[in-house]
Write a structure and sequence with these properties.
By secondary structure, the chain is an alpha+beta fold. It has 13 helices and 27 strands. The strands form 7 sheets. Strands 17, 20, 23, 24, 25, 26 and 27 form a 7-stranded mixed beta sheet that branches. The chain has a 4-stranded antiparallel beta sheet with strand order 1-8-6-3, with no helix packed on it. Strands 5-4-2-7 form a 4-stranded antiparallel beta sheet, with no helix packed on it. The longest helix has 22 residues. The structure holds oxidized coenzyme A. Its EC number is 2.3.1.12.
């Protein structure tokens, strides 16, 4: 049966939209909720999900077209999607001719048979009430996760939504809830192991398994037929807001996962009504963290996000969340390629936008004459090599900064603007920006004041290697009081680093170069190291900043100073 999907209502007074991107192609098999278009109205760029499932037999629009509300966007053959989901409401929504509807009714018998086949297939999976819980999808482009804790053991009675694992992906640690109730028969994964998305991790004996399975698997199909007859009055929005269960990875050729892989950056795990609600109140759904199974976003999640954002803005915490200006259609001017941001990039972008918009930054520049220090560095480098480290200017700076933080406590604090308090820290942890192929990471050398330069050199080398090999733990990236960003190994004269909030200052180091310096009546070549100190002007005054930076410069020029 052919079903026509038309451009839905987009809001008051919106009659047309520009098709930024057609996401599906003829021949694709799609399901309800799959995103099919990205469109741009004069107000925003939005994703349009399909509310029908089936095989795309014809696309009526292409990228760059302008489509009217109600215009046919694509034609679907519903037959291919029957196995996945019945679409009883489509007749009304898509104005399927009555005759076709009748034909569809006649087809109900074979459809039920298919349903039964599907049910028995599923039952086999849950053989004798045994259910294999597989690691669900955790986010776009995440293929596996490190299991940091297994929260259940054999014999435990667990309920649907109970967390069963704690896992870590890139930066975030999350609990994974199970989507069925039962008794744990087998735990197939151990703490410290890596689990792939779709891999069976826990096996449970279902509570009232067979009847529950039968009910849940056959019910929707039969119910759908009945509901069709009843001419339901329930709105689609109401049914959509029910949180869905964790998407199961199936071998089906048109699984949601496969579809998502093709469209990595298009899908927020939310139903169309939640997306619509989010759009209507001006919230970018991609910024909302879903609390439902598998990270599913509910209306409640959107409301909580909106409330928090509102509070932040009203408390003057910043302008994050200000919706981005709509982008032009870059493909008008040439070929483009869209790529999903890595998790690190997303987090870095959000974190730095926050820091940049909240902290009133000032950057103070200075230069240190490290000619003598360089001689010392070369002289002692073998000893540090023997200890397993590398004596670099960064390692020496970590030690100098730890001492400077002791001397200038306003650089070793954080600000609590809610309570109007300053939090002074009595420990001296220094973060180092490390350049990795996945983006910027900032591991932290803890208690740097208690370590000598050799120990710091060894630790710095280890942390930088771990950062580049994706082996840093969350703990190793937390607790920093001040950061150093040394770009001098690459080049550059000066730059203005962004304070790594909630810290209050950061030291940028550029390339040390020999320069003519006027000394004792003549120009002499000296190795000069450019330094940039960015600081939070809410807590640090300009005079404090230059005193701090001068102290650092003098310590580089004469390390003995630190001992005084
Ligand atoms: N001026 C001149 N030379 C420098 C220098 C500087 N400021 N800093 C380092 N060098 C030299 C080192 O002496 C070393 O030379 P040799 O091999 O001849 O001894 C070489 O550059 C490489 O140093 P390194 O990078 O191995 O070691 P490091 O301790 O100086 O730096 C680390 C470690 C992790 C800070 C660095 O590797 C790194 O990742 N830097 C980039 C940081 C970054 O991305 N910051 C941006 C943050 S904001 O976007």
């Amino acid at each position: 049966m052919a079903i026509e999907f038309k451009l839905p209502e987009l809001g008051e007074n919106i009659e047309t939209a520009q098709i930024v991107k057609v996401i599906v192609s003829e021949g694709d098999v799609i399901k309800e909720d799959d995103i099919i278009l990205e469109i741009e109205t004069d107000k925003a760029t939005v994703e349009v999900p399909s509310d029908v499932g089936g095989k795309v037999s014809k696309m009526h629009v292409k990228d760059g077209d302008t489509a009217k509300v109600g215009q046919i966007i694509l034609t679907l053959e519903a037959g291919d999607a029957k196995e996945e989901k019945p679409e009883p409401k489509e007749e009304k929504k898509h104005e399927v001719k009555k005759e076709e509807a009748k034909k569809e009714d006649k087809k109900e018998e074979p459809k039920k048979e298919e349903t039964k086949k599907e049910s028995s297939k599923q039952k086999q999976k849950a053989e004798g009430g045994i259910y294999e819980f597989k690691l669900p999808e955790l986010g776009e482009n995440i293929e596996s996760a490190d299991v940091t804790a297994v929260l259940v053991k054999v014999g435990d009675q667990i309920n649907e939504d109970d967390p069963v694992l704690e896992i870590e992906t890139d930066k975030a640690t999350v609990e994974v809830p199970i989507d069925k109730s039962g008794k744990v028969k087998e735990v197939k994964i151990k703490e410290g192991q890596k689990a792939k998305i779709g891999e069976t991790v826990i096996v449970i004996e279902l509570t009232d398994s067979v009847s529950e399975e039968e009910e849940s698997l056959t019910e929707p199909e039969e119910k759908a037929v009945e509901e069709k007859k009843e001419e339901k009055t329930e709105t689609k929005e109401e049914t959509d807001t029910k949180p869905l269960s964790i998407p199961q990875i199936s071998d089906s050729t048109h699984s949601a996962r496969q579809f998502k892989k093709e469209l990595p950056d298009k899908i927020a795990p939310a139903s169309p009504s939640v997306r619509r609600f989010s759009r209507e109140i001006g919230i970018n759904i991609h910024q909302v963290r879903g609390t439902g199974p598998g990270g599913r976003i509910s209306v409640e999640d959107v409301k909580v996000f909106a409330k928090n954002l509102n509070e932040k803005i009203s408390k003057g915490k910043g302008t994050i969340g200000v919706s981005a200006e709509p982008l032009p259609d870059f493909s008008k001017w040439g070929k483009i390629q869209r790529e999903e941001m890595s998790n690190i990039r997303k987090i870095t972008a959000e974190h730095l936008s926050y820091a940049w918009s909240v902290i009133p930054h000032v950057t103070q520049f200075d230069k240190a004459d490290i000619t003598e220090l360089e001689k010392l560095r070369k002289q002692y480098s073998k000893e540090v090599d023997a200890a397993g480290g590398k004596l670099t200017v960064t390692a020496i700076l970590v030690k100098i900064i730890a001492e400077a933080l002791k001397k200038f406590p306003q650089f070793n604090c954080s600000i609590d603007m809610d309570k109007k308090e300053i939090i002074y820290k009595k420990y001296y942890n220094v973060g180092i920006a490390v350049d990795t192929d996945r983006g910027l990471l900032v591991p932290v050398i803890k208690d740097a004041d208690k370590k000598n330069v050799t120990e710091i050199s060894v630790e710095l080398g280890e942390l930088a290697a771990k950062a580049r090999d994706k082996k840093l733990s969350l703990d190793e990236m937390q607790g920093g009081n001040f950061s150093i960003s040394n770009l001098g190994g690459i080049g550059g004269t000066y730059f203005t680093p962004i304070v790594n909030s909630p810290e209050v200052a950061i030291l940028g180091v550029s390339r040390g170069n020999y320069e003519p310096v006027y000394k004792d009546g003549e120009f002499v070549p000296r190795l000069m190291l450019p330094l940039s100190l960015s600081y939070d002007h809410r807590i640090i005054d300009g005079a404090d900043a230059i005193r701090f930076l001068r102290w650092v410069v003098e310590s580089l020029e004469n390390p003995f100073r630190m001992l005084l």
